[in-house]
Design brief:
InterPro entries: PyrdxlP-dep_Trfase, PyrdxlP-dep_Trfase_major, PyrdxlP-dep_Trfase_small, Ser_HO-MeTrfase, Ser_HO-MeTrfase-like, SHMT-like_dom. This protein is an alpha/beta fold. It has 18 helices and 18 strands. The protein is globular, with a radius of gyration of 22 Å.
């Protein structure tokens, strides 16, 4: 549990921030145009409330690791088996990151070379499946991800996709239409019907726990591999506030940013066991060969260095307190929104994110509401809701989350304030004819209140200061 005396600042990584002048002096000298853009982005990130659940702030130490001379070195292969000379230090960096990651999750095997979450998922496909095999994943508009079989993505082009979720028109089932909760018995029935080679458990907009034990039981019932995509909940799992997939999933994939506060990258964890289709081969070897040479060339040494820093930060008690506060804040924000009449998918949250059905709440689509919120200094993203009758680029919902604001030290009190601002923004949106118009005077008033809070000095941005 979070200690009662924990201050706002202690939730951020404890290393001194850089200033834009000191960190980017070389850029300022050679490219003042880019330097100006950097300053503007630092100011933007400082002055707004960032509620996009897939975004966060990294520490100064992580950013400094990204700027190391490791970016100068090519290192195709794996430690001890490179195709270039001069990789003895890169070998040590990669192994440091890999061992720290294994220890964080108590995993049999780890690969830190994937360039992001989607390549990590692609490597899982390459290791476990052949083109034309069946995959079962969460329906994208119900909260899934493109790489879990959606038709415009490689996963839907190369593999036979089946989905769980809820969309009455498309005949998608596996989610209670009244509560928005996953229906595991129905998912089992779907799996028995389609016999997938791989089942993906994970998504981008499901605000409840993922029951990985139930998913493993379903996978075993149909002799499928279970892949847990934990990109959104990686930090919550490390912090002990979300069920852990590692004891159950054959493979775990993730980004290395979001709630874990690392650089933009990815990683894969897996069990050390024989392959189903060829017991003479082992799963870690298949995963590693799928990443290199199957998918990528040389990894990014500077990113692996930043991963090592990130994993060290995530192993601390401070990070555990941070993960607990993320969930406390999300629950407080959800309740404050419910108190103001907003309709939430599943009625609340168990994790870091909240999915609001804005059309049902205020008769405003998610896209214009997100635009109005940003005009008021609150950054969110419009998002589909299960069984959404609207198009994906103008959906009914809004997705928000608490990792970034929690990094800045926001607590439950600030969540109530954010809900109040969102309520006032909704009141400033009016439909005129076929379009939505905003009371810009009211939005500017809210933006000034947001700016005053964010620049008060009580909630500093870690990493870089203006």
């Amino acid at each position: 549990m979070l200690p009662a005396e924990t201050s706002e600042r202690s939730l951020a990584p404890e290393n001194p921030p850089m200033t834009t002048a000191s960190a980017f002096e070389a850029i300022r000298a050679i490219d003042p145009v880019l330097y100006d853009l950097i300053q503007r982005e630092v100011q933007r990130q400082t002055e707004i409330v960032r509620l996009i659940p897939s975004e966060n702030y990294t520490s100064a130490a992580v950013m400094q690791a990204m700027a190391t001379p490791f970016c100068n070195k090519y290192s195709e292969g794996y430690p001890g088996k490179r195709y270039y000379e001069g990789n003895e230090i890169i070998d040590a960096v990669e192994e440091l990151a890999r061992q720290r990651l294994k220890q964080l999750f108590k995993a049999d095997h780890a690969n830190v070379q994937p360039l992001s979450g989607s390549p990590a998922n692609q490597a899982a496909y390459l290791a476990l499946m052949h083109p034309g095999d069946s995959v079962l994943g969460m329906h994208l508009p119900s909260g899934g991800h493109l790489t879990h079989g959606w038709n415009v993505n490689f996963s839907g082009m190369l593999y036979r996709s089946h989905f769980y979720g809820y969309n009455e028109e498309q005949g998608v089932t596996g989610m209670d239409p009244e509560t928005g909760m996953l229906d595991y018995e129905e998912i089992l029935a779907i799996a028995k019907r389609v016999r997938p080679k791989v089942i993906f458990a994970g998504g981008t907009a499901y605000p409840r726990y993922w029951d990985f034990a139930r998913f493993r039981a379903i996978a075993d019932e149909v002799d499928a591999y279970l892949v847990a995509d934990i990109a959104h909940i990686n930090g919550l799992i490390i912090g002990g506030v979300h069920p852990d997939p590692v004891p159950y999933a054959h493979v775990v994939t993730s980004t290395s940013h979001k709630a874990i506060r690392g650089p933009r990258g990815g990683f894969i964890l897996c069990k050390d066991e024989p392959m189903k289709d060829d017991p003479s081969q082992r799963l870690p070897d298949r995963i590693d060969k799928a990443v290199f040479p199957g998918l990528q060339g040389g990894p990014h040494g500077n990113t692996m260095a930043a991963l090592a820093v990130c994993f060290a930060e995530a192993a601390t008690e401070e990070f555990r307190a941070y993960a607990h506060q993320i969930v406390k804040n999300a629950k407080a924000l959800a309740q404050a929104l419910l108190d103001r009449g907003f309709v939430l998918v599943t009625g609340g949250t168990d994790n870091h994110l909240i999915l609001i059905d804005v059309m049902r709440s205020r008769k405003i689509p998610g896209k214009p509401f997100a635009k109005a919120l940003y005009m008021a200094g609150i950054e969110t993203n419009f998002n589909s809701v299960p069984n959404d009758p609207r198009k994906p680029f103008s959906p009914s919902g809004l997705r928000i989350g608490t990792p970034a604001v929690t990094t800045r030290g926001f607590k439950e009190e600030q969540m109530v304030q954010i809900a109040d601002w969102m309520d006032r923004v909704a009141a400033a949106c009016t439909k005129v004819g076929g379009e939505y118009r905003f009371d810009e005077i009211k939005l500017r008033e809210i933006r000034e209140e947001v700016r005053a809070l964010c620049t008060s000095g009580k909630f500093p941005v870690p990493g870089i200061e203006i």
